[in-house]
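LOG
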Amino acid sequence: MANKDKSIFEKFSDWATKFTGSSYAFLGATAIVVAWAFSGPVFHYSETWQLVINTGTTIITFLMVFLIQKAQNKDSKAIQIKLNELLAANEKASNRIVDIEDLTEKELDQLHCYYEKLADFAEEDNDIHTSHSIDAAKRNQSYKHDVFKRKHEEWLQKQEQKKGSQ
């Protein structure tokens, strides 16, 4: 992808994210705090001296929250796209879970419970290569329903025959 399409803010935020996560930024911040601490006797540990570090760190923290959130949003979106590509490329994976990040917390909890049950099924299998997916589970459920329905109909017929022979 071309970097020329990036806005000035995008370029700045990418640079700032990389820089603030670097050793240089940490060393710079440490140097500022040490310089501030050593300047205490010069300013007689005044309220203004304390206010300088408090105000500076508050402003930097406030701005960093937004910078971190932007970087997190971008990383999260990239990871979701990569996962969606893997799901789409894998013939055994269910496409139903593509873009599940748009679901509510309650819906995600329901899916989580479902996948916990699938994990339990997988633990019971002797073959570690057995695939369990939503589609496979649906087919299994449909099969079980059809078998139950057939057995129930056979039982009903036997009941009818018993009534007819009495």
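LOG (cont.) second protein
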Amino acid sequence: MTRRKFIKACFAAAGLTALGGCSRTWANGTPGQGNVPGISRGSSGQRPSYLALEASGELERRERALWAKMENCDLCPRRCYVNRMAGEKGACSVADTFRVASTRVGFGEERLIVGRGGTGEIFFSNCNLLCIFCQNWTNAHRGDGRPTTPTELASMMRLLQFGGAININLITPTHLTPHIVTALRLAIAQGLSIPLIYNTSGYETLEVMQLLDGIIDIYQPDFKFQDSNIAIRFLNGAPNYTEYTATAIKEMHRQVGLLREANGTAYRGLLVRHLVLPENLAGTDTFVRWVVSELGVDTHVNIMAQFWPAFQSRYFPPLDRRLIPGEFEQAMRWAREAGLHNFH
């Protein structure tokens, strides 16, 4: 199936011929979006930027550009160049169809991300990075999950909003950006109006990040390693991890800036995550200095201590053990000494 026929089939399944033809309006008079009673724009009251892109027709153009990449796939830095639309699979093991591992309104994320209503988590199956210490390896490596269509994904987004979620949290989305944007356009027609979070490993291309400009409200990337020569051993041979991730995060910051909140809830901005590893394998001291230098001292950073030797870690010392207390305490000292103000 060609990408054009695939997209048309998604809209036909949802009972739509074109999103631009929708004549309903929001209460504030904005044309071209569905108006579903009882749905608000989230606790911040801010209007997600993707609504303006859809109204102008630009979101449809971005959708087509992302699907075009599937025919010679370069959606991520691995650049497998396989024709996923013809059923071929690269490192992520996903062709043109996809799976969702789970959805829920969750409260386990950062305070500003969950707010009072919870974050609408959508966990996608498979992954483009494939860490050997992955704590969700049954989903990311093995691909456990339910086969899903963009039409069904749109319904998931809408139902999470109905369920009180203050945002839609797209977890491990990199290899499925075309499917997500198609689903987003369908969900907009059904009344979706809360921020989108792009919750990623950070291993992204600049080209795809630029196509997501104005679509994503909150970026939540990991920055796992500060040395690509170290990273490649633990990331299934992913080339130049540090360079690609640094470039991607700087582009995210250019698009959305510092994390902004209203009523205790983030509605736009960047939050960077970093997992402390045994023997400073992740280069935490270098990471915090990089954040200050490239993004600024007010950048929101979550420095995480929850490493444990999951999946294949036992075969890769020093990842065959948990952190000792002194290692995480040292990470906190490095963050303070670097001058970070908003680290958790």
